[in-house]
Amino acid sequence: MKYLKCLLLAALGPLALLQAQDVQVVDSLLQALPHLGRNAQRVDAWNELAFQYRSADSEKARFYAESALALADSIAYSDGQSDSYSRLGVLAKNAGVYDTAEFYYLQALEARKSAGAGDRIAQACNNLGNLYKLMGRYEQARQYYAEGLDALAGAAPGNEQAKLHNALGMIYARLGQYEEATRQLQQSMEIRSMLEDEAGQAATLLNWGNLYQELYNYPKAEECYIQCLSAYRQLGDQQGQAKCFLQLANNAFLQGDYPSASDWYGQALGLEGALNEHERAVLYRNRASIQAELQQYGQAREGLLSSLLTFQQLKNPLEAAGILLEIGHTYFMQGQFDKAIEQYQKSLVQLDTLPAPRLKAQLLYNLSQAFAQKQDAGQASYYESQFNQAKSNLSGEANEALNFQLSLEEGRRKQEVALHLNKLRQREKTITLTIAGLVILWLSLMVALLYAHNNRKKRRIAEQNEQIALQEVEEVLTDKELDRAYAFIEGQDDERKRIARELHDHLGSMLSMVKLNFAAVDAKMDEIQSENRQQYQKANTLLDEACEEVRRISHNLQSGIIAKFGLKAQLEAMAEDYNDTRQLQVELSTHGLKKRMDNMLEVRIYRIIQELANNVVKHARASKLTIQVNRFEDMANVMVEDNGIGFAPEQVKDKGGIGLQNVASRVHGLDGTLTIDSAPGRGATIMIDIPIPPESKN
User: Fold this and answer.
1) Span of 29-38, 323-332, 645-654 with lowest mean pLDDT
2) Cα dist. 556→216, 545, 553 in Å?
């Protein structure tokens, strides 16, 4: 019996074993089973076999788990019951049957609460949190992760606390609470560094990258993913490597770097078997998104529909809503606006109760654009107002993220220090006085380099200050030139009108008097000889032509180019000029411009759009420019959007970009409002609203 007990204890040892060791565990358990009675040891053995078979043979795993549960029920073994429920929950989750998994996990938690074991309660809460995260039910996930930490209150820091803090970090990020996300990830990294848990540190580092990606800091996210990939390679963890490849691909895709994204997705596909069903669905969805960007819309929809079906089966409404938006976008790009609207509205219904403000704002904007393309001004205006409200809320959230950026950087620095200290502790076992001297020399060199770097930084700051001063002077001069140009244009327009009035009032009236005199002569035409009659008729014809020419010249002088052909024609000519260069693709969309505005107002709106287009050519490195001009009853709306490198609006304000300052000055002069939506790496969108005065309506 002593031999059997030792054999069983060896079989029920650590779970984190390599594949060869797993086979040994299974063999040991199978050898021990014939010698075990119908007792708690047999329940534990069956539960361990269910755990070992969970990936390789799910049916065999389910058989052992159900057998263990039946025996545990019959002998009232509560720990065995909770373990059996947990094993059955894992099997249901892996099969994508989330409702069943939820039932088993809740049963496991209830059994462990009855037993009162804090660490086992925390494990059950962690399982439930992970399940709800997969289902997109983030608030419920947060509650169970927090409950798991409460169950461990007062216990020494361990792996279970680290896992819960790590999971909570990403849940808070998804909920937009970035400060709390930073705090949770930092606590996870501190515990795992203390435990010297390299695999755990890599898992937390992966979530650091995800947090940076949420904050649009793609370079920092890539840095974290590369470090994480290196750690997983050293550990030989293929599942971890596959996750890193997937996140690196997503990061490249979000920046519009489709070749790099395709390369990373290809490497992820090479390890596809290491990904779970949810991660594989994400992989296929993102590959379809690249196809959509390459205008392969039919193939893209096939991939998106396949991923949509998977996420619906997994009962994940958030991911499903995102895919419906992408499907709608493929229809929009093909001009099938009714189908696009149908998909957008399906997505909006799913998002109604979900915490996804950024995705909802994108949907509202897409709906306003689709209805505008259908010439449905009422619906377009409604969804545009909804979008503006959502964007306002989103901007506050983005500002919150920026406010927490310093906190995030501090957390990353602490993490790097923790990793470095961990390496130092390992090296201290074999360190020598010579190596210590080299470390001191290295530190001295780093101090010298930092000192030199700081000096260079100070010089750059001084040069930047000087450049800012020069730009301020140039802006003052530019403003004065702009005022003079406006005055000159208005003077030219007034002069043309004055000449037109002179032609019409004075010369026109003189010619009319001559015409009357000729009419008097006409009454006595019978008395004039035939030769004189012909001369008279010729003179009369020339007089009619002169009158007509005076009217034509007067009309042309009063109109000007835009007044004659209208703002829409002028914008179409500008778009054609840019497209002819083959360097920038310009898409122009207008609504309501058939109803004319005051000539000078149309000229000023055109100058604003022209300035924005010039800025895109000079600075944005864009390949595509979209211009939309919508005229409503009391308001003209302009939106200029590019796919260039983007910029931080706050930095532009600080540095004083002349082009945007000119635009802002012109918009202010028309009592309009200017909104800038941009960030590095994702292009720029400029939105302008200009009121139409009553006297400017035609």
Assistant:
1) 645-654
2) 53, 17, 5
Domain boundaries, the chain: 284-430, 496-563, 566-696
**What's phi and psi for 230, nearest 5 deg?**
-60, -40
**328-333, long-range: CB < 8 A, 24+ apart:** 328/366, 328/370, 329/292, 329/366, 330/292, 330/297, 330/300, 330/301, 330/304, 331/297, 332/366, 332/369, 332/370, 332/373, 333/292, 333/295, 333/297
Under 8 Å between Cβ of 631 and 598: no
> Do the beta carbons of residue 185 and residue 143 sit within 8 Å?
no
**Residue 3 pLDDT:** 31
pLDDT in tens, 636-686: 999 999 999 998 888 766 555 667 888 898 999 999 999 999 999 889 999
Residues 6 or more apart in contact with residue 562 via CB below 8 angstroms:
570, 599, 602, 603, 606
Beta bridge partners of 638: 629, 688
pTM of the model: 0.47
CA-nearest of 634, 651, 658, 646 to 683 is: 646
CA proximity to 347, closest of 335, 362, 337, 336: 362
Reduced 3-state DSSP string for 338-399: HHHHHHHHHHHHHHCCCCCHHHHHHHHHHHHHHHHHCCCHHHHHHHHHHHHHHHHHHHHHHH
Measured CA to CA in angstroms, residue 567 lies from 47, 595, 605, 616, 668 at distances of 76, 10, 8, 21, 20
Q: Write 268-271 long-range contacts (CB < 8 A, 24+).
A: 268/242, 271/238, 271/239, 271/241, 271/242, 271/245
Distance CA 679, CA 685 (A): 10
Report whether 203 contacts 240 (CB < 8 A).
yes
pLDDT digits (tens, 9 = 90+) for 62-98: 999 999 999 999 999 999 999 999 999 999 888 778 8
Strands of 635-642's sheet in order across: 585-591, 624-631, 635-642, 684-691, 673-678
The runs of H, that is alpha helices, within 504-586 are: 508-522, 530-565, 567-581
Tell me the C-alpha distance between 602 and 570, whole Å: 10
3-state secondary structure of 418: helix
Q: Do domains 284-430 and 566-696 have the same CATH topology?
A: no
Pick the CATH number of 284-430 from 3.40.50.10190, 1.25.40.10, 3.10.129.10, 2.40.50.140: 1.25.40.10
CATH fold of 566-696 reads Heat Shock Protein 90 (3.30.565)
CA distance 307 to 288: 9
Name every residue whose Cβ is closer than 8 Å to that of residue 407 and which is 6 or more positions away in sequence.
179, 182
Instruction: Tell me how far apart the alpha carbons of residues 570 and 613 are, in angstroms, rounded to a whole number.
Output: 14
In whole angstroms, give the CA distance from residue 181 to residue 165: 9
